[in-house]
Design brief:
about 240 residues; mainly beta; three-stranded mixed sheet; 19 strands; globular
């Protein structure tokens, strides 16, 4: 199913454009892939790097990398298993920061239109640098996460990797607010959720769902521990939490 989704994404969302790459004299063909809500796909780049793309993610990458660097552009969330090549650094460019590596495994979460930027390192090392402030950069070591707090990069240790099991089709959360969980549901199910019941915001919740079980199943499970009702407006793809 994932391979089929990839083919659909390439056919419907892919496009070829030509752009003058930095430090390169000849045009390089770029491929653009956009993943619809509720889907995820797995691709392999020209250098052998393996990339998982989460829902509502767009990636742009060259058909072949130039001789200086391996640059891809990301809007959304992706998990990278980068092929090692010490002569050509691998760079993930987001609208906020560049993430540069030689060979490693890491997750980048940076959707445009939000203030969120996170890079979680599983192994190897990465260097994160601001696109607008040359003085703002840091090197991340394994089992740590870099994230934005009040507009500045911060680092904290990671001891739970279950949130990154989205590659397996799982929606996992640990001590998350109800609003945060609903934001994940919006991303994975392609809907808008409006919360009018303020009581649901009092507590933190832990659990996991299979994406294929659907949003109604997930909400019914949450109702066993949380008092709320909900209504669906299927014509406008909206759920109201009451």
């Amino acid at each position: 199913m994932i391979k089929i989704a990839a083919i659909i994404a390439l056919t419907l969302g892919g496009s070829f454009i030509y752009q003058e790459m930095q430090r390169e004299e000849t045009p390089i063909a770029l491929q653009t892939i956009t993943v619809p809500a509720g889907q995820r796909i797995n691709i392999t780049l020209a250098d052998g790097t393996n990339v998982w793309l989460n829902a509502r993610t767009t990636i742009q990458y060259p058909i072949t990398f130039n001789s200086k660097e391996r640059l891809v552009k990301l809007d959304g969330e992706a998990y990278f298993d980068v092929a090692k090549d010490k002569t050509k650094p691998f760079i993930v460019q987001t609208n906020k920061y560049n993430v540069e590596v030689l060979g490693t495994q890491f997750d980048v979460d940076s959707y445009s239109g939000t203030e969120i930027f996170e890079t979680t390192l599983m192994e190897g090392s990465v260097r994160i640098s601001s696109l607008t402030d040359d003085t703002e950069s840091l090197t991340l070591t394994p089992h740590n996460k870099a994230y934005l707090h009040n507009g500045k990069l911060r680092v904290k240790p990671v001891d739970d990797y279950s949130p990154y099991r989205w590659r397996e089709g799982l929606i996992c959360f640990k001590k998350e607010t109800f609003a945060s969980i609903m934001k994940d549901f919006e991303k994975y199910y392609g809907i808008n959720i409006y919360i009018t019941n303020i009581q649901v915001q009092k507590y933190l919740y832990t659990g996991k769902f299979r994406q294929t079980d659907g949003v109604d199943y997930a909400l019914r499970v949450l109702q066993k521990d949380i008092k709320f009702t909900y209504e669906r407006d299927d014509d406008n793809h909206i759920i109201y939490i009451k």
